[in-house]
Amino acid sequence: MSAQAGRSVKGQGEALSEAGSDEALRPRPETEDTGPGLLSAVLARENMQQAWKRVWANRGAGGIDGLGIDETAQRLMREWPAIRGQLLRGTYRPQPVRRVTIPKPDGGQRELGIPTVTDRLIQQALLQVLQPLLDPTFSQHSYGFRPGRSAHQAVQAAQAHVESGRRVVVDVDLEKFFDRVNHDFLIDRLRKRVADAGVIRLVRAYLTSGIMDGGVLMARSEGTPQGGPLSPLLANVLLDEVDKELERRGHCFVRYADDANVYVRSRRAGKRVMALLLKLYGRLRLKVNEAKSAVASVFQRKFLVYSFWVAAGGKIKRRVADKAKATFKARVRKLTRRSGGASLEQVVERLRIYVLGWKAYFRLADTPKVWRELDQWIRHRMRAIQLKQWRRGTTAYRELLARGARPEVALLVAGNTRRLWRNSGTPLNGVLDLSWADQLGIPRLC
User: Fold this and answer.
1) CA dist., res. 347 & res. 201, Å (int)
2) pLDDT tens digit sequence for 276-286
3) Are the C-beta atoms of residues 181 and 224 closer than 8 Å to each other?
């Protein structure tokens, strides 16, 4: 973190500290105190300061009030004592979330609900108190949005089930899960784990706060939209009921958020498990997308955009699912368009952010040959951009000679500027080579 960023974090923390001073954070018994309990722990000064630091670090867009991080800090300095009093009395009403949609890798749209920064702060403070209490009660087979657990661990657990001989998977897709969570069912499950009326009331207020879309306020009777800190934890509270039933019956399964796979030894067993899951999810009023769900060979399905394959000797290995690889190439094509007008350095920087993030997620893949092929393909595209930016004639000829190209090769490439893709292949492999790519900072997958 830079010194300037550090000073900014410190400044925001001090702003909240002033807004949440000892006097402001001390309950007023005659009007505000609900007695000792979780809500008091949520609103404790140290917890609120920690929540603010997390919200500030995540940044993110503002909600319907149009206030960003800095503006919200100033508001809290003035209004936090009053907001805290409302929270303790149970009269605080969260503002509606702002609806936005983002593209999904498969071409669809994912709906998000963006709370105001103030509401993100309160949700984060709730999360910091509730998660340590709830997380230890969740199934060991659940990996999504849990401290110390990750998608990589989920993929490795799935691989272990396949290696044990369970080569049939019951792959269940829940249709618009976060939009269809039943509020009454969720609150009922939460109340069984959290004995604090103030917290329960506040969580329900967030569930029913409504959605603002294009200036129109829509009431919400179901769903916990993605975008707020609490949604993943609440999803685990609801889905843990299915996990526990699968555990009770001795099934081998892995769940990451609403993505669950059960591993069995035969299709007949898989069909029985599928019928069970349809029943269990139906009890929670969740809809299974039967068109996307299946009982199939593990080698025909993907899990968290990984798939499995059998190497020599029968060893089970991991690879990037075909659809994810196609999405990667489409994204790289967009980032490396020759008509984009960006400099080579700007293209490299955009590419670096995406490729290194993709590489970090797919580092478990046992496919070095695929990585080499993708690296070569990326460098091919970058050479084409370089040739176009050199333009035509003597510039390209002179640059190629300076990099050690034979005169006949330099002449051929410089005089054929309309065939950028072809000329940036074999003729230039030994000129704009790996060292050229490394010097530019073009990221590598291997």
Assistant:
1) 50
2) 999 999 999 99
3) yes
